[in-house]
Amino acid sequence: MKTIGFVGTAKNTGKTTTALHVLKLVSEAGIVTALTSIGYDGENTDHITGLPKPRYYAAKGMLLATAEPCLGYGSAKLKDPIRTGLRTILGEIIIATVAEPGYVVLAGPNRRMDIQQLLATLESLGVALTMVDGALNRLAALTVADGLVLSTGAAYDERIPELAAHAAAIESLFHYPKYSSEETSHQVSFIAPTGITQQLALGSVLEASAMQAVADWLKSSQGGTCLIPGVFSPQLFQEMLQQLDHHLEGSRFVFQSPLNLLAAGSPEIWQAGFASLKSRGGEVLYQAPLPLYLMTVNPFYPQYLQKTGNYTAAFVDKVALLQRTRQLIQDTPVVDILQPPLPDLLKICEITPDMFSDRPQA
Amino acid sequence: MKTVLLAPLDPVHDNAIKLIQRRLAEAGYEAISMPPGTTPEEVVQKALVHNADTILVSRTLGYKVGEILSQLVDLAEAAGVRDQTRLGVGGMAITKEIGTELGFDGCFVGELKMEEVIAFIENRASISTDGADSPNLRKKPDITGGYTYEFFDPVIEKLLDQISTQAIDWVGTKTTDGIERAKIRTAMLENEGSASEREKLLEQYLRYCDADIQAFYRSRHLPSGVRWLEQSEIDGVSNLFNTSHENFGSLRHVGSKPLFFSQYGTGCPVMDVLHIKVAEAWGIDGVFHFDPSWNAQREGLLEGYLTHEHDGTIITLENLKFIHHFLEPYTLWNVRGHRGLNTPETQVLGHAAGADLFKINIPYGSTGGGTDPARLTVDGIYSLMLASQYGIPFDIPGNDELSGVPPYKTFAGILIMMALGLKLGARPIPKPLLCYSPYMTIYGRMDDNMIDMNLAKLAVWRDIVDTPLWPGEPVGFMTHTPDRVQSALQTSLHATLASTMGADAVTIASSDEAYSKGPISVQARVDTLRAVKDQLRFQGSVKATLSPEAELIKEEIHEKITETLQAVAERGDFVASIYEGLLGSKEDGLYPGRVGAGTVRG
Predict the structure, then answer these.
(1) Distance between A221 CA and the closest CA of chain B, angstroms
(2) B103 part of contact set with chain A, CB < 8 Å
(3) Is the CB of residue B129 less than 8 Å away from at least one CB of chain A?
């Protein structure tokens, strides 16, 4: 089974619109698909801005994984409910099959371990493709996906140059290779060229003393491999690089995944830091790299009106936004889902009907 | 000992965090709080260092705040914290849907409830995390539970026995068109599946209806100002409220009573649902269905989804079921039928739609612009039998006092209704009026204050019978003005006065109810709910004691209730007592009702 995560840089950046578009394509291709969300999708209006939102429309035969109370919210008729034992704020996650097409409300599991369990169940049911909708800017739980589609837009930042630069910084983080060694650790660890291993008590670097320890390891050694299974504060990483001006040659930083970097924020700092590291003979690797199939840009943003206290729909120049982002991002396709022509998105997402021909039907 | 990390994630405030920290420490947890301005990174670092079992975040929601909260969730996930730590969020504007969207494991909606917080920390099924089928969803209260209806005053008990026996004997086998319709309606409900049977029963039904009701059924001719609800209107409200059940907070600060009720009856069932949902969200425990006055003055009820442009919402089975569908499972629902020509049939439909309470008062309903006393006595006693059969308690409003009737006469009437109900196996709830009593005002008994009189009116019941008490209807009547702040204040003062006397329930008005010049507004409804809540918070468990003046008034009322009941008993005819003004005379401002005069048969 293949799993694709649809994530965003903020609310209202177009995750659902993008997912709906891909969903339509996979439905037409006859692929047995399951839908879920790590947030709450399907409401008519945004909880905060009150502006209209796109709704999920599920085709017959599709499977849904959503919180029990949500089964009755949409117009789709559902059948064959299966309990998963996974609990969320809204209730237990139920897998159901769409008997008659219609609108649905999705509120699936949001923790990585729960998503993992759900995906295993869906696979056992013969699902060929699972599409997981993200929520706001959350993406760390989607390390379990086989690849991502990332949406950004003016809802993140209405300044086109800054928005495009931010998108390019994110995109740049997906191109580092897999760490080939079997070495893993739950703590931040350092393996010196001599083979001597040192460890911190924790798996993340979120305070100055932890960063200093890592810096000291590198200073006292000519190169070496640093494993960071959790997160590293980008600001502390930047500080560390400044300290290690002449000690980065032969150094390797092994992060868990690009999503662990993004969860810590500031992709521009990571992008600049990694460029600096590379120029000084250092290297970045991932324990579990993840492909970024596609980026989408959305000119919409909710504009707050001081006078009325309400939000209104506003847009940046959609052509300029797309052009600027494409200028900065060369290695990943960038589209505005609402600006045709669109490339073959199924191919881009590595979804081909024949991939699933040997699967049992759900 | 479980470790709980408390993070405000707010640049300025952390009061909620401090409060929770104190209460968690008292409950035996190691509660570590972080200061305002803490970043998500600092929270996750702290959670890692302390191996926190739970992280609780408090933050008021606004645009882009969601991203800060979800960053914490993401960071916790990436740092491996979520494998052993549960994340909870609370704060203004947080809802279950937003908590889900943000990726938290639990959320705390509305007022802080420590039992919910602790249930979350302990990973027990809790109210706000379990949704519709939670065994912890608020239970529907029973107002009459625990009361024995034992009379403490044997003289009054004996008089009531005499009066109620006479009234029931007088009714005997008498019947009315209203009773016949109720019987046919019952049969129609029992034969819902059979079109031919329904057709036959409808023909019988129409024989007992007025001409305009017959015209409605025969040619779908709608009464003036009435129209069908459109499907889009029905769907619109369904889309708005078809969500899981909510455990809305109550108005009470301490204890489980009084319960608070408000009326609805905008004329439109869709608007009624909106009003009810707002009232529920702000803490109401129960609602009344108010029907239009013309509903009470015609023989026969309409059917279908109907709306109209006047006060009171038309009673049809469809309208009632539609409204009932949207009630929270714990909200009490009273379908009133204490007056009018359709009193028995209203009970039948109310029961079929899921009513929890009825409202029946023969002396009140058969005076003023109401129903003929003989007619309402026959219909009313039949309705009490229905209430008994259905096991649905009935309340007895004492609003005839508003016409200038002295409270002791109103109370005597309420006591007779109680005795009738008890004799027929039903459970009554008296509703003394807490108000600026016209009679007592005229005679100078409320010149100094409004407390003594109202306390006395409640206390006297405790000397007579072991019964639930439900001051109404609504409290503060005759004190309200077009000034919404003033009206809300008066309602809250009266409501909390009732609370200090241990009342079981209280009916409250919206702050524009007396002067709305049409349907009341939703914001005016919220006015009083907020005012009452704050007044209850202010008062806490403080109880009232009667002043010497209040004691005197109470004794006086008690004595005069006895005298009134003696007069009715001596008259030996309950119906004649109403006609002749023993429970409220023309001099008091009360006239026997005339609607349905001469319609009793047998």
Answers:
(1) 27
(2) yes
(3) yes
Nearest to A105 by CA among B102, B239, B326, B61: B239
ipTM: 0.92
Cα angle at B259 between B255 and B262, to 5 degrees? Answer: 150
Burial of residue B199 (CB within 10 Å: 0-12, 13-18, 19+) is exposed
Helices (H) and strands (E) in chain B, counts: 24, 16
| Rounded CA separation B234/B244 (Å) | 18
CA distance B62 to chain A (A): 7
Q: Which two tokens stand for residue B273?
A: 């649902």
CA B250 to chain centre: 12
Residues of chain A found within 8 Å of residue B96, distances taken between Cβ atoms: 89-90
Give the separation between CA B590 and CA B405, rounded to whole angstroms.
7
Q: What is the CATH number of domain B3-133?
A: 3.40.50.280
Domain ranges in chain B?
3-133, 155-239+257-557
Q: Tell if the CB–CB gap between A110 and B79 is shorter than 8 Å.
A: no
Determine contact, residues B473/B429, Cβ cutoff 8 Å.
no
pLDDT value, residue B63 = 58
DSSP string, B582-595: TTS-TTTT--B--B
Model pLDDT for residues A114-161, shown as the tens digit of each residue: 999 999 999 999 999 999 999 888 899 999 999 999 999 999 999 999
User: What domains, with CATH codes, occur in chain A?
Assistant: 2-174+290-356 (3.40.50), 177-286 (no CATH)
What is the three-state SS of chain A? CEEEEEEECCCCCCHHHHHHHHHHHHHHCCCCEEEEECCCECCCECCCCCCECCCEEECCCCEEEEEHHHHHCCCCEEEEEEEEEEEECCEEEEEEEEEECEEECECCCCCHHHHHHHHHHHHHCCCCEEEEECECCECHHHHHCCEEEEEEECCCCCCHHHHHHHHHHHHHHHHCCECCCCCCCCCCEEECCCCCEEECCCCCECCHHHHHHHHHHHHCCCCEEEEECCCECHHHHHHHHHHCCCCCCCEEEEECCHHHHHHCCCHHHHHHHHHHHHHCCCEEEECCCCCEEEEEEECEEEEEECCCCEEEEEECCHHHHHHHHHHHCCCCCEECCCCCCCCCHHHHCCCCHHHHCCCCCC
pTM over 0.90: no
- Report the SS3 class of residue B563: helix
Smallest CA-to-CA distance from B74 within A134, A16, A145 is with A134
Per the CB < 8 Å rule, is B106 touching A69? no
d(CA B99, CA B102): 5
Burial B86-124 (b: 16+ CB within 10 A, else e): bbbbbbeebbbbbbbbbbbbbbbbbeebeebbbbbbeee
How many Å is the maximal CA-CA distance in chain A? Answer: 66
What is the per-residue pLDDT across B534-592, written as a single tens digit (0 to 9) for each? 999 999 999 999 999 999 999 999 999 999 999 999 999 999 999 999 999 988 888 89
Burial class for A196, CB neighbours closer than 10 Å (0-12, 13-18, 19+): exposed
The beta-carbon neighbor of A229 closest among B41, B80, B107 is B80
Q: Do B49 and A202 touch (CB under 8 A)?
A: yes
Fold of B155-239+257-557: TIM Barrel (3.20.20)
Per the CB < 8 Å rule, is B243 touching A69? yes
Q: Using CA atoms, how far apart are residues B215 and B297, in angstroms rounded to an integer? A: 16
What DSSP character marks residue B175?
B
* Dist CA B26 CA B19 (whole Å): 11
**Cβ-Cβ contacts under 8 Å for B566 (sequence gap 6 or more):** B159
